[in-house]
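Please produce the structure of this protein holding arginine.
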Amino acid sequence: MRPVLRPWAAVLALLTAACSGPGPATTLAPAPGTAPTTTTGTAAVPAGRVAGAAASGLGDPYFPTLGNGGYDVDHYLIDLRVDPERSHLDGTTTITATATGDHTAFSLDFAGPDVAAVTVDGAPVEWWRDGAELWVGAPLVAGEAFSVAVGYAGVPSAFAAGSPGFPTGWRSNDEGTYVVAEPDGARTWFPANDHPTDKATFTFRITVPDGTTAVANGAPAGTETAGGLTTSVWEMAYPMSTYLATVVVAPLVRVEHPAAGDVVLGDYLPPAMADEVPEAFTRTGEMIEAFSAWFGPYPFDRYGHVVVSGLPAALETQTLTVFGDEWFSTPYAEFVVAHELAHQWFGDAVTPATWQDIWLNEGFATYGELLWVEHLYGPEARQAEAARRYDDLAATDHALTGDPGVERLFGTSVYQRGALTLHALRADVGDEAFFAILRSWVERHAGGTAATSDFVALAEEVSGRDLGALFDAWLYAAPLPPLPSP
Ligand code: ARG
Ligand code: ZN
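Below is the modeled complex.
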């Protein structure tokens, strides 16, 4: 038997409190989308939209202006020189895309610093900014591929508009610079089609001063050093939503762990931490094996954490989770590791079709914590932990899990009632059908996006049961249904 050093119930009680519910939102910069047109690339361009322009949003129920119509991004090349001391960046993002309609102009989501130039297929074009939209005055022809390159420089600001909990986007402090962009902060540091549904591959080319290291999602693809600067290239070859893109620039040390099957494992840690790797990071391989048995194969070829300071959270940035160092002063870091790892299947490989579907991320990742309890201590412990969370939830005013609203996007309902929805589903359909549902979900949708209605339909298909009443009660009605026993 494994020695139980910490009673898991007490440990996870703290986790519940820490992981859910937005804290005070500090606005570091004005909300985007409110400023009038201020900057133009030429003297005589019109403000706002022009006749025949593509839509400036994708109509997400919570973030209607995020994303843009008219094109589908294939690849982002984000080429930036970063001065972490000043939080300054300077460079070019080149987007390769395919037009999905005929338009006279199109927009990119961009709330970043000053734009210097925009080209389409290498030729300078008119551009203008309107709030968090960067308009490009070039036509799109349905079905045709094009590339748009945006040069920009300055100090980006994270913002809290519509992103509860902490300001999202490009952030800096004395220890370095890092990106945590969920849900709407990607546009603070690169021009994007900033909605989860437009997944693309990414190349990062990040140039930083000696003494710091630049890491990003995916696989390292070479470095070059010259004149006190080092350029690191990172390739994310799997489709990725924009909010999951990250770059961290800080003094960092690579710490390898034994591979889990074919999955390369390693963390990037501040030098002081590298001498004594946090215990929570030493079991990632074991977690990958346990989760793979339940969810199907790990969906990428590598995984690890990059530890940053000043972040009271973690974010499941694809293949390289950004992990706030504050977790290590708590006993529940290991459960945060489990949570962020579970997100690689639920959130990263399979991504919600709209932000309203966020429980498909957070409920599932929180259920991953319960599964880690089950792995460590057995099914009764998992059941007891579910019951404890149920009691907490019953005593807490909480949002509708399937429609939490922007203010409670990362609130306790999405996390805990979301996880208990899966607990109830498992109790109803039995272990075999339940895990078959989870595995089919990933198999069917990895690399893409899917909605709650897709999950309900799949669960009914795999189990052969009518589950409408179960999901309605757990996701869309206020009264908390009774907690089923297994
Ligand atoms: N997805 C993160 C997690 O692992 C939380 C992100 C919260 N974002 C925010 N803007 N508050 O739970
Ligand atoms: Zn989460």
